[in-house]
Amino acid sequence: MPNWNLIGSLIFPNVGGWVGAATTMVGQVSNQKNNSWYETIKKPTWTPPNWVFGPAWTALYTGMGYASYMVYEDCGGFNEKAVLPLALYGGQLVLNWMWTPIFFRMHKIGWAFIHILTLDIAAAACAVSFFKVNSNTAYFMTPYLCWLAFATCLNHSIWELNKDDPKTE
């Protein structure tokens, strides 16, 4: 019999990523010349190629989903012990999903930077709360926190390079 709690935990966090990716694929980030807005802005030389983001986020969402499953199981389901860590998880996940439209659809790079700083704090709080339930969740949350730190630096650098461009703010 399939473990639907596990399957749901692995798929659920990816849903927001898929919706965000679909938003970018249907032209939400293209200009009148059919160029991607992201391709037209200045980026630091250490920006990863675009193809890296999909697999990276899929692995990270799946990893944090598994960490949430570990917490759910170790707490015995949705109960008083699970409320705080799973609420922090849900909150940081929503913040994560909201970053994509702020950056890519609204082109608000500076606001996206402030938003990702908030996400960093929420994700760290979630990771600490998960760790208190099961220390093995660190194996799944640490790569996510590292990628978020990198993404935060990238967002800031892109903002610095483009903050004088009226199409980005």
Automatic annotation (TrEMBL):
<keyword id="KW-1133">Transmembrane helix</keyword>
<feature type="transmembrane region" description="Helical">
    <location>
        <begin position="111"/>
        <end position="131"/>
    </location>
</feature>
<dbReference type="InterPro" id="IPR038330">
    <property type="entry name" value="TspO/MBR-related_sf"/>
</dbReference>
<feature type="transmembrane region" description="Helical">
    <location>
        <begin position="6"/>
        <end position="29"/>
    </location>
</feature>
<feature type="transmembrane region" description="Helical">
    <location>
        <begin position="50"/>
        <end position="70"/>
    </location>
</feature>
<dbReference type="InterPro" id="IPR004307">
    <property type="entry name" value="TspO_MBR"/>
</dbReference>
<feature type="transmembrane region" description="Helical">
    <location>
        <begin position="82"/>
        <end position="99"/>
    </location>
</feature>
<protein>
    <submittedName>
        <fullName>Translocator protein-like</fullName>
    </submittedName>
</protein>
<feature type="transmembrane region" description="Helical">
    <location>
        <begin position="137"/>
        <end position="159"/>
    </location>
</feature>
<comment type="similarity">
    <text>Belongs to the TspO/BZRP family.</text>
</comment>
<keyword id="KW-0472">Membrane</keyword>
<dbReference type="Pfam" id="PF03073">
    <property type="entry name" value="TspO_MBR"/>
</dbReference>
<dbReference type="GO" id="GO:0005741">
    <property type="term" value="C:mitochondrial outer membrane"/>
</dbReference>
<dbReference type="GO" id="GO:0033013">
    <property type="term" value="P:tetrapyrrole metabolic process"/>
</dbReference>
<keyword id="KW-0812">Transmembrane</keyword>
